[in-house]
Amino acid sequence: MEARRLKFDDDEQPAADSVRPALSIVIVTWNSGRWIDRCLRAIPAACDGVAYEVVIYDNASGDATLQLVADRGARVMRAASNDGFAAGTNRAVRETSGRYVFLLNPDCELAPHALASLVAFLDKHPSLAGAAPLLDGDGQREFQLRRLPTLRSLIGEIFAFHKLFPKNAHTAHHRYRNLDLTEPRRIEQPAAAALLLRREVFDEVGPFDEQFAPAWFEDVDYCRRLAASGKEVWVVPEARAEHVGGASLEHVPFEQFTAVWYRNMWRYARKWFSPGKAEALRWLILGGMLMRIVAAAIGVAHPEVGRKRAMHAYAGVLKNAWTRWGAH
Hints:
The chain is of the alpha/beta class. It is built from 13 helices and twelve strands. It starts with 5 loop residues before the first strand and ends in a 6-residue tail after the last helix.
């Protein structure tokens, strides 16, 4: 980390505590003014007596985010530019000292006792690497709870099988639709929107991979690394959080999101799939973009952004996939 690029708001830090906090809450913000106040106000009741600290890493927000976090008892790290979720998380975690690290999106509102429940669960199960609350909100269960990607599941994403055939058995399996959530369950890939991890996990598994910038697939990659190390993460339904979802997309043009999403999908495949499967995925992305260009031309694919913008976005992915994203 280049220290000169960060400004620490030391005057916003709470008084020093001689006792190491059990919990370090890390929040990466970027133009999060619409959500951050609600997020921070919910934390004390969620911790319910568990000693905690809050570290906010702000990715050069241009809105009122920094004004809203002032005087909230959090340590604020201010970046000179948008370093992305992975880099912001890594740098914030290095400034924390809790036994547990809780990754929290600014558009999450924790329910009372949620974090206390997660800490108690991991205290009771020392062999587990992490735990997540169950996210409430429209479509949040399928967003949060997924198995690790396979070539087949990524094909489904590329060709939107989950939309064309929403009740197909493979999608139901991949997204844990039939999982009984009346009690804690192991989840291969819980979203990092709200995720509690042991401190030693970061020491052993290492930081988030910053090549997945500015966002998307970095948490999928991290869960894959956890699984490769024989570590498990469970969802604890007793702990709840309201998650809006897609808050950062309010500030990301459709063309940019589409370009980054497929580029990072390709990077994930190159990292974890065999060369043959990664190359097959590239050709499937090419075919998928051709299909989406046609769908956009007739007004079917993403009509909310307009035909021209949708076609331009998919054509950009098509071009980049053809050149293997510059082999990066």
